[in-house]
Amino acid sequence: xxQRRVRGAGGRVNGANYYGRWRFNHRGMFSDHDxxxxxxxxxxxxxxxxxxxxxxxxxxxxxxLTLLTTLINEVLTFAQFREIIEEALDGARDAKxxxxxxxxxxxxxxxxxxxxxxxxx
Length: 121
What we know:
The relative contact order is 0.10. The chain has helices spanning 2-8, 18-26, 36-43, 45-53, 61-76, 79-120. The radius of gyration is 25 Å and the shape is elongated. By secondary structure, it is mainly α.
């Protein structure tokens, strides 16, 4: 899958065609020229040649990391994935606020009870 994605990236770099319009609308204003796989293909063609003759597991760690980073950046160009990540971050932020609020209420209750406990004890 990764070989097809990286090697086939940017095959149609023309904003006037259907694919270019679809990509611009569904990938959150990213154009074909912003594609991380196209950038990798232009920057490091030897890595792609190595992928055609060998397996990804045979590559050096730096090349594996380059491929992984490129594919992560590729996925992040899709608006749908970015929305999912933003919703998860908003949920985590809300949970953190709720947890802090719960903690401060707990501490206030404990402080209110503390003088009563010391008088009785």
